[in-house]
Design a protein that fits this description.
The structure is a homodimer of 369-residue chains.
Chain A: E1 4-8, H1 12-24, E2 27-32, E3 43-46, H2 52-59, E4 64-67, H3 74-82, H4 91-98, H5 100-109, E5 117-120, H6 123-132, E6 137-140, E7 151-154, H7 161-165, E8 170-173, E9 178-188, E10 194-196, E11 200-205, E12 208-214, H8 221-234, E13 239-248, E14 253-259, H9 269-272, H10 277-285, E15 299-306, H11 318-321, E16 327-331, E17 341-349, H12 353-368
Parallel strand pairs in A: 1-2, 1-4, 2-3
Antiparallel strand pairs in A: 5-8, 6-7, 6-8, 9-10, 9-11, 9-13, 11-12, 12-15, 13-14, 15-17, 16-17
Helix pairs in contact in A: 1-10, 3-4, 4-5
C-alpha cells in the first residue's frame, strides 16, 4: 500500500495537500525549491528538480512521486520510471500537459473539440495560418508558459519575429471568440476509477485567474464532464485533471489548456465539496477509492488574493476581515510581491451565487483596506 | 499582532490546529512530549512540560502559549505570566479546569447548576456525604483525571480506603441519575467576544467518548448556551471551552466537567460548522474576531476510532473504507494500542441524524473489518 507520497514542488498546491495527507494518515514529503517555500512545513528535500540525482534521492524516500507543477523535465521522469520508481501522473500522460503542441495533436487524434491550430516552424507557415484565420492568431510557446506567460496575440509575422528567430516549433491557434471560460475538474486513480466535480466558470484578469464560480451558471455540465473523462482516459491521466474550456456564444465547448495536478479552478472544493481536489489527488495517486465529489452547498465562489506590493501580506487586515461571516481564508505563507498568488477566499451559499460572491468580495475588500 | 502560536502538548488536538493555522497564515509551534507525537509535523520543541526552564525557552519563540491538554503545572504558568509571557487561557482560568474541587466551588459561587458536592478530607466526611445522598457517591481526585481515570463510584468508606489514605482532599459528588450527556462548546477571545456552537449529545463507553450527535436531539439548546456563556465569562476563559453536561429526566442540565481547549465533543465542527473549534481556538487566543459557527449541514455525527490492539492502524482498511460515500476520515498518526484514541470519522446529513450516523457507522465498520 502507498503510504508516503512525494510531491515535487513546494508551492501552494503542495501546501494544501498537507491537510488531507494528515487527515488520512498518509505521510507527505515535499521536494521544494527553497527553504522559504509555501509548503515548507512538509518539505523534506530542498533542491533543483531538474537535477536527476537529487530527484532520485528524494524518490527513494517515498512510495510515489507526484507534482505541484509540471516543470520537471520529461527525461528526469522517464529515468525514474525506468528505474522502477512510481510516478503519477506518469511521464506518458504528463508530456501532454508539458507540451501544448503534443497536447493539441493528441486531442485532435481523439476527436475532441479544440480550436483550429497548426504547428509553426517558419514565418511562411505563420503567414499561412493568419490568412486562413482572419488575420489573427494566438501564438504559444509549446512549453514553459503559465498564467498568461508564453502566449501572444499576433496579427502579422512581424509580431512574432523574436519567437520565430529562436528556431523552435511554435503553436498557432485560432483566436476563439469565447463568451466565457469554464473549467472541468476531475480525478482518475491508478486503477481507472474516475470522478468529476461540477463544471465551474473561471474569470481571468490579465491572464491570471481572478475568480471561480461553482457551478458555472447555465453551462453544459454533461458536455464538459464527457470531455474531461475522454481526456483522462485517452491520455492515461492519474490524479487531478483540470480542463480549461472556452464557451462560445452558441454554447460550444473548446478545450483550451490542461493541467494534471490540483488547479486554481478547484480551490472551491476545499469547503465546497465533500472531497476536496487535494484529498482526491492523494487518493488517486495512492490508488485509493476516490471520494464523494457532491457539493456541500448549492453555490461556491472563490476569489484569488493577488499580491499588492512587497509589503502587503493581507494578515495585517485580519482584525477587520475575519469579522466577515462565512468567508474562508486561505493564506499561502509567501513573501509579498505584486501580482503573486498570495492566498484565496471561498464563500458558500445555499441561496445564490450572488450571495456567495458578496461574502467573498466583502472579505477580499477588508483584506485590502 | 499575534502571529506565532505555541501549543503545549503534541496530541491530536494540537495536530488538528495545524490546518487552520496554515490556512490563516499563522505560525504554529508545538511543544511535544516525544519525537513520535501526533502533532510532530509542527513540533519545534521536545521536552518535559513540567520543567520551567524548558517551557520558558519555548515561550520565547512564540507570541502566545496555549494548550493541547491541561496538565502543565499552575506554578509553571504563573511564573511565565509573571515574566510577561502571554498564556491563553490564563492560569487564573485554567486552574478551574485543572482542579475539580476549585471548579465546583467557583461554579457554586456563580450560582450555576452543579450536582451536590462536598470536599472530603476524612472518612467521616465521606460517610456523612454517603448518608445524605442515598448511600452512593461519585468520588474524584481533584487533579489528573481524564477519560474515566481518577473517578470512582463508592458505596462505603471502605471503597475509598486507598484514596483516603493518601491524605489529599477529594471531591465527592452525588450520583446524578442522568438520561444522557450533552456538551456545550463555545469560545471566547481575549477581547471578550463569545460564540457557541449548537449543543451536542455525547455517548460515553467505559468513560471514554464514543460518539457525538450534533445537534443533540430535543435538547435545551438555549439553556446550555447560557450556562456556557456564564462559565466563560465568570471564569475568564479564553479559547475554546467545553462544558460537559448531565441531562436529567425532567430536562434539567447539570454541569459535569470543563475543558479549556478544543475537545472531543467538538470534532464534528471540522466539517459540520463554518468555523471549526480548532480555527476558533486559534482566533480566540490570537485575539482575532471569532468565526461564524453556523452548521454547514442540518445533522452531523462523529464516531471515535479507538485502538483495537498493537497492530491495527485502520489505514490498512482504506481500500474498502474509503468507498463509503460521505464519510470524513481523521487519523491521528499514533502507534496502535488497545483503547487509544486513534482517529475519528464524521458524516453529515441534510435529512436526519440517523442518516449521518449510518454513513459514519458503515465507515467505522469498514475500518475494523
Amino acid at each position: 500500500m502507498i503510504k508516503t507520497i512525494g510531491v515535487i514542488g513546494g508551492g501552494q498546491l503542495a501546501r494544501m495537500m498537507i491537510t488531507p495527507a494528515q487527515e488520512l494518515g498518509l505521510t507527505l514529503k515535499v521536494f521544494a525549491e527553497s527553504e522559504e517555500s509555501s509548503a515548507s512545513l512538509a518539505a523534506t528535500s530542498i533542491g533543483d528538480y531538474t537535477a536527476y540525482e537529487t530527484v532520485r534521492n528524494f524518490a527513494e524516500t517515498v512510495d510515489v512521486i507526484t507534482f505541484d507543477h509540471e516543470h520537471v523535465p520529461l527525461t528526469v521522469l522517464e529515468k525514474l520510471e525506468a528505474e522502477g520508481f512510481k510516478v503519477q501522473p506518469s511521464s506518458s500522460a504528463l508530456r501532454f500537459a508539458q507540451n501544448k503542441l503534443s497536447m493539441r495533436k493528441k486531442l485532435s487524434e481523439l476527436g475532441l473539440p479544440v480550436p483550429a491550430w497548426a504547428e509553426i516552424n517558419s514565418a511562411a507557415e505563420l503567414q499561412n495560418f493568419l490568412v486562413e484565420h482572419g488575420g489573427v492568431a494566438v501564438l504559444k510557446t509549446p512549453t514553459g508558459g503559465y498564467d498568461g506567460k508564453g502566449v501572444m496575440i499576433v496579427r502579422s509575422v512581424e509580431d512574432a519575429a523574436e519567437w520565430l528567430a529562436q528556431g523552435r516549433p511554435l503553436l498557432a491557434e485560432e483566436k476563439v471568440e469565447f463568451v466565457r471560460e469554464l473549467a472541468q475538474l476531475s480525478a482518475r486513480n491508478i486503477s481507472g476509477q474516475w470522478s468529476s466535480w461540477t463544471v465551474v466558470q473561471t474569470v481571468q484578469v490579465d491572464g491570471v485567474c481572478s475568480e471561480v464560480l461553482s457551478p458555472a451558471p447555465n453551462a453544459d455540465a454533461t458536455g464538459a464532464a464527457i470531455i474531461a473523462k475522454r481526456i483522462a482516459e485517452g491520455l492515461g491521466v492519474t490524479g487531478v485533471l483540470a480542463v480549461e474550456l472556452f464557451e462560445t456564444s452558441d454554447g460550444t465547448l473548446l478545450i483550451n489548456e490542461l493541467a494534471m495536478r490540483p488547479h486554481n479552478s478547484g480551490h472551491f472544493s476545499i469547503e465546497g465539496s465533500i472531497t476536496s481536489q487535494f484529498e482526491q489527488h492523494l487518493r488517486a495517486v495512492a490508488d485509493l477509492p476516490l471520494g464523494d465529489t457532491k457539493p456541500t452547498a448549492n453555490f461556491a465562489v472563490m476569489l484569488n488574493l493577488l499580491g499588492v506590493d512587497d509589503n502587503h501580506t493581507f494578515i495585517e487586515h485580519y482584525p477587520q476581515a475575519l469579522k466577515i461571516s462565512g468567508a474562508h481564508f486561505h493564506t499561502y505563507g509567501k513573501s509579498a510581491r505584486k501580482g503573486r498568488k498570495m492566498g484565496h477566499i471561498t464563500a458558500l451559499s445555499a441561496n445564490s451565487i450572488q450571495e456567495a460572491r458578496q461574502i467573498a468580495v466583502r472579505a477580499k475588500e477588508a483584506l485590502h483596506a
